[in-house]
Amino acid sequence: MEALVGVLVFVVVLLASIALHEVGHMVPAKRFGVRVSQYMVGFGPTLWSRTRGETEYGVKALPLGGYVRLIGMYPTDDAVGARAPRNWFQRVAADARAASADEIRPGEDHRAFYRLSTPKKLVVMLGGPVMNLFIAVVLLVVAYVGIGIPASSTTVASVSECIVAADAPAGTPCTADDPAAPAAAAGLEPGDRIVSYDGVEVTSWAQVSGLIRDTTDRSVPVVVERDGREVELTAAPVVADRPQVDGDGNVVTGADGQPVLRPVGFLGISPASEIQRQPLGEALTVAATGTWETMKVVVTLPQRVVDLVATTVSGGERDVTSIVGPVGIGRFAGEIASMDSEPVAVRAAGLLSTLAMLNLALFVFNLLPLPPLDGGHVVTALWEGARRQAARVRGASRPRPSDSARLVPLAYTVFVLLGGVGLLLVYLDIVNPVRIG
């Protein structure tokens, strides 16, 4: 049941993200006077639609995207001074211009999209991706600031009974030859909350860990809160070889892949995990990092697709960093929601973070400078604006609108390629899914 709820939440948020993406295009277009004839969520056969004013609003059968139809997306033949087509590419462009012109009602040429200034075109085209970025930030703020994420606390979860070798397997039992751990000798118990260490008031596990590591060969006072009262203890950390960690708390590994050991102060306690609300800056940092990582994935997308196909053909298991499609993300949502070992709040935060990453992917992907993606229209608008500014500087007459219809053959090619990759990911997410746990 939990998995089904997770999938349903994913579908609802996906549809909402698509709908709001198109709202990001539609609202500024209407504000600038462009007639919007259709606002559709999905592709394929229409399941439901209603006409309000001059716009038909509807939902289609395949929730794989959406669109708003802006009249006059391509300039007319007269506007660009088009000549009779002489080859297939020119005929496709001419057909696109003709279809666009047919949508312009008599006397409404001034309401065509191609008539907008470059800044207004950029606002309309960037409205959709920016809406996805906004959705991602809101979801991350709710997950990190509103709910919180699991983090190490200053509460002791367990106390080691003895000191074992750093390279010993986890769970290695103590022997008579192993010396007692300093924490056990000092009287620390699971459930104690560390209030201060060596006279320093502590507020985080990272601070406690750093203080312990820097303490060697001397006794220090430790104050803990136990059963609602403060208890003063004395601990004497010992020097032991332990894995070195970086500033983010990650274990540093050597060229052989093994942890790098260094002598540090060792007490023998481990922290309990608790849900901690994060500052707003942390949510924004996660959004920025996720955007950058998504950009790197998009740049290497062709090679990743090739590697993914090769892995599947060879019978290998997909890596957790493998690219996934809607089916894979829906599976993630179901698995996160069904993690009975995690509190509901943790699962909710994980689900929201996953959906935020989906919106970041939509934000980055739609900015690719290729038609029919929003980034392709942005590049066309920038090129037209640059031509106009150059003409103004030279004192020349205003140039004709850019014949963006000439990019329609490229748009068809990109659409087919992206559709093929999407179908491939759907197939691979079914036959060779990525598992997160």
Write the layout of secondary structure elements.
Elements: H1 2-31, E1 36-52, E2 55-70, H2 77-80, H3 88-102, H4 118-147, E3 149-159, H5 182-186, E4 193-197, E5 200-201, H6 205-213, E6 220-226, E7 229-235, E8 238-243, E9 261-266, E10 269-276, H7 280-299, H8 301-313, H9 326-337, H10 344-366, H11 374-394, H12 408-431
Antiparallel strand pairs: 1-2, 3-10, 4-5, 4-6, 6-7, 8-9
Summarize the structure in short.
With 437 residues, this protein is α+β, with helices and mostly antiparallel strands.
Describe the structure in your own words.
This protein has 437 residues and is α+β, with helices and mostly antiparallel strands. The chain is 47% helix and 19% strand. The chain is built from twelve helices and ten strands. The protein has helices at residues 2-31, 77-80, 88-102, 118-147, 182-186, 205-213, 280-299, 301-313, 326-337, 344-366, 374-394, 408-431; strands spanning 36-52, 55-70, 149-159, 193-197, 200-201, 220-226, 229-235, 238-243, 261-266, 269-276. The strands form four sheets. It has a four-stranded antiparallel sheet with strand order 5-4-6-7. A two-stranded antiparallel ribbon has the order 1-2. α1 packs antiparallel against α4 and α7 packs across α10 (344-366). The two termini are 18 Å apart. The model has no long low-confidence stretch (mean pLDDT 88).
Provide keyphrases for this structure.
4-stranded antiparallel beta sheet; two-stranded antiparallel sheet; elongated; 437 residues
